[in-house]
Every structure is written in structure tokens, then in C-alpha cells.
TrEMBL record:
InterPro entries: 6-PGluconate_DH-like_C_sf (IPR008927), NAD(P)-bd_dom_sf (IPR036291), P5C_Rdtase_cat_N (IPR028939), P5CR-like_CS (IPR053790), P5CR_dimer (IPR029036), Pyrroline-COOH_reductase (IPR000304). PANTHER family: PYRROLINE-5-CARBOXYLATE REDUCTASE, PYRROLINE-5-CARBOXYLATE REDUCTASE 3. NADP(+) binds at residues 67-70. It catalyses: L-proline + NAD(+) = (S)-1-pyrroline-5-carboxylate + NADH + 2 H(+); L-proline + NADP(+) = (S)-1-pyrroline-5-carboxylate + NADPH + 2 H(+). GO terms for cellular component: cytoplasm. Keywords: Amino-acid biosynthesis, Cytoplasm, NADP, Oxidoreductase, Proline biosynthesis. Catalyzes the reduction of 1-pyrroline-5-carboxylate (PCA) to L-proline. HAMAP family: P5C_reductase (MF_01925). Its EC number is 1.5.1.2. This is Pyrroline-5-carboxylate reductase. The gene is proC. It comes from the Bacteria. NCBIfam families: proC. It comes from Saccharopolyspora spinosa. It is found in: Cytoplasm.
Amino acid sequence: MTTIAVLGAGKIGESLLSGLLKAGRAPSDLLFTERFPTRAAELTKTYGITHADVADAVQSADVIVVAVKPQDIEPLLDEMAPNLPSGKLVVSLCAGLPTKLFERRLPESTAVVRVMPNTPMLVGEAMSAISGGAHASDADLALVEELLGSVGMVVRVPESQQDAVTALSGSGPAYFFYLVEAMIDAGILLGIPRATAADLIVQSAVGAAAMLREGGGHPVMLREAVTSPAGTTIAGIRELEKHGVRAALIDAIEAARDRSVELGKAHEDDEPA
């Protein structure tokens, strides 16, 4: 059985560990690192998984999943590099960081797979996009697909598209939460109690998502099916168009893409000329 070490047990790291256990992985096949002792003890008690330091984790595991914030990557790579044996697969869940950063800082020919997951991993409904680095094989990508398939859906994309994926699906849940928040506020404005408004909107969102995924219809067709001539929905849609909501969403996603690019460039200073 493949041994997996998750470096960084924040929300995403913990969600992956939980998903792997639910998919049938034994606790003995998993390791994690965590810099806060109280948090480490809590996770070990909850899941029965061994806490390790970085050196032991990268030496013991076959697959090393890096799940730290981008700003924490440099000291982690410094700790990993002298302890990482050859033949290990490194999987990065770090937003904006290219595979070449890991390949440059880790031992030569290390296989690296870049992943952009999102927070619905917490409920087993993640959307993860994966890209292989220069030394990653099809077998490496297939293994990552299997691992991440335990917490949601997985697609392969060229690494050149990862910044766009980060903006679209990585940040995407936040846009939906933002819209739901605004719609609940609208319900309150119209006199509906907050709890009732939340129930109405959240269930509408769940149902709409199910129609998109299971019905296979184009969103335009689904929207038009709700939009009767001279009805309430078209009156609302007209206001959304007047206020440029569509354009604002496109601009927001472009801005998120640009920020993802910036995060990657912030770690290019030590590249050889």
C-alpha cells in the first residue's frame, strides 16, 4: 500500500486525510506534519494518524503532499530538500506555485504534480485540477487522480492553465458564498426572517447545482426555463444586467488569475539566469 504524508494539516490537509480514510486507506498508511502541538494531538486523537516531523515524513512516505500556504513554502522546501530520497512523488496543493519551483529546489528528477483543489473538499465535493511537472509520469498522474478522487472530482489540465483554474474553481466557492450572502440579505430586506431566507436560498443553490450536474443542460437553457415572458425572473435579470453583474464576475476572475500569477513570480528570484 502506498504511504502518504501530508505536510501541513490545515483545513485542506485535514480534509484530504479524512477523505483518504473514508475511501479505505488505513491510518497506518498516512502521516502528517503540523507545527502546532495542540493541533497535532487533536488530529492524532480524531483520526489515529501518526504525526511526524518533516524529515521523517519525506523519508518514510511514497507520496508527499505539500499543503501549506504559498508564503510558507520556502522554509518547508529548505527542510525537505536534504531529506528527500530519490523516487518520491511530490504533490503540491499550493495555490500559484509552479512545478518548476519544486523541481529547482528539490533533488534532481523529483516527480512533481501540481494540484488546485478547493474548499468543498471538506464535504467530499472538491473540484481538483492536476498538472504534471517535467518528471511526472502518466502513472504518477493516475495515482494522484485516485487519491483526490476520494474527496471529489478530478480533471487534468496543462500547467499553463493552472492560474486560470485557481481563479475559476479554486476561488469559485467564495463567489457563490458571496452571492448567497447577498441573496439572504435581500430576503431580509423583503421581510423574510434570516433563518428562513437562508433555507430558501441554500436549498435553491443545492437544487440548481444538481440540475447543472445531473441534467446536463446548458446554464442558459436552464435559466430560460425559469424566465417567463413579462414575469418576475426577467425583471430581476434585467436589474442584474443593468448593474453589470456578469462583467463584474468576469473581472473578478481575471483579477484572481492575475494574483495567482503574482504568487508564482514571487518565488522566481532564485532562478538561475
